[in-house]
Please model this.
Amino acid sequence: MSLRGRACIVGAYEHPTRKAEDKSTAQLHSEVAWGALQDAGLSKDDVDGYFCAGDAPGMGPLSMAEYLGLDRLRHVDSTDIGGSSYIAHVAHATAAIALGRCNVALITLAGRPRSEGQATGTATRTQNPAVPDDQFEIPMGRTVAAAYAMCAMRHMHEFGTTSEQLAWIKVAASHHAQHNPHAMLKKMVTVEEVVNSPLVADPLHRLDCCVISDGGGALIVTRPEIARSLKRPVVTVRGTGETVKTHAGGYNDLTFSGARWSGQHAFEEAGVTAADIQYASIYDSFTITVLIQIEDLGFCAKGEGGKFVADGNLISGVGRLPFNTDGGGLCSNHPANRGGMTKVIEAVRQLRGEAHPAVQVKDCGLALAHGTGGLLGHRHGSATLILERE
Amino acid sequence: MPERSIQAPIPDPTTAPFWEAAKEGRLMIGHCRDTGRHFFPPRGVSPFTLSPNVELVPASGRGTLYSYTVMRTATPYVPAMVELEEGPRVFTNLVDVPFEEIRIGMRLRVAFRATEGGPPVPMFAPA
Model:
């Protein structure tokens, strides 16, 4: 069964905070849920499907249903594929709605790594003896930054990609972030400023990395009939895809991501190609994440990503592929260290015509949101969503 | 260049023989008896077939550098992916090499490093 056209996003809300010292994670979940329901024109008692991932405290849906007072649930899903979870949740909600298992699905994300002082990218975590890879990887000083940097280093080796090309991705994000009053980094940066910022993990510099922020976001997904009865513009799910990419026993090619497979499925289901996409939310934990995914999604050939992203090609109103017009994770927000939710939210804004006027894509009718969760150079989840304005 | 202190790996019942061999300076890898292919990290199951028909076998300890980074932490170090002669790529660290002399494709050999109270871990140095 195809999911094409089987559900619509009618509520989308991004928490304006970037530092929430005075709020609990559960409270942030409740505030984004409230915001998304208000946006949709629905109420708590309409929610009969709930979706959350590893950022939700306690036993996920159990703890959150308790805190949020969700007492009419018929369907729950706590799939956790890292930061890409929420993009997959839209697909799972669409499937559940198509099967009649729920009518109004709520998806929430929230967290406060900034207030908690997590050295998200550069600190080695402690081993969990039950996780089979930890004993082989944690003593080696595995970090988030290193996992992405090794991919960048190999991509440069095979394809001649340069630090300047990667820097263009941050430059484009910063061009968009200057218009977002909530963005953590509102100042426009140049290629020179990116490549002259301190190295974090060669060849990635500080400005190749995303921000660390508190906050969250939520989405409401519902049946097309209900969506059309509400007052908001209707954004319909057109294509979906997800996968997990692993080390494959030691035969992992670091120049590819799971986007190659999740993207292909989403495009096939949608019946469109990369050339048809007018706006793309592309997961941007690091600049290299964007470049590899753009190739794997088919916006250009493998190895051509460096040329594709250079010279402002990702800047709205300038380039061929306007991306992350809210400033993305690179400049605006990466709540709970999980960027998939905000990727969907900005795609919805673009399709509704509600992005900032300076970055709004004219007559945006078809958009893509894609996420990579976990560690690009190790194991990661991958989810792709193609959305259209009705 | 000072080296960072290394967390002790926590073996589990399946991997204990790997770490016992490490104490003797021997690098072991997984071998799938059904496909004849080697894999890493070792485990009680073949990542190619899901069959338990696997064994732990000695590796040559020789390989080439597939990719790396320099973590610019207080004590910098070099996370790396090393492609073993037997095929699998291993997530490890490079040691005993100045950062500016590191080249993808360079020939390497295993060099065990002591950990904080646990078995030594297999890192790699120029061959």
The helical segments of chain B are 16-23. Strands of chain B lie at 28-32, 38-39, 54-58, 62-68, 78-84, 89-94, 107-113, 121-126. DSSP finds one helix and eight strands in chain B. The two ends of chain B are 19 Å apart (CA to CA).
